[in-house]
Task: inverse folding
């Protein structure tokens, strides 16, 4: 797991059930000054889910909004 994947997972797991928009994830994980396409968040979530294996269902996609963790 990369550092950014870890930070993303930590963000979601610290506040389970709370939906984070892609923009909010970018600001909190990559920093306010970091400019990325929101697809970057999607790709990191995809890779993180693959690495989580059987536990990948803890990260839920909220269509047109963002992501949340369910534990």
Result:
């Amino acid at each position: 797991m990369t550092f950014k994947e870890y930070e993303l997972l930590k963000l979601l797991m610290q506040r389970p059930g709370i939906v984070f928009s892609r923009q909010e994830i970018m600001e909190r994980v990559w920093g306010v000054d970091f400019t990325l396409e929101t697809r970057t968040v999607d790709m990191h979530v995809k890779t993180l889910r693959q690495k989580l294996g059987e536990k990948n269902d803890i990260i839920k996609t909220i269509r047109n909004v963002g992501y949340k963790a369910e534990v």
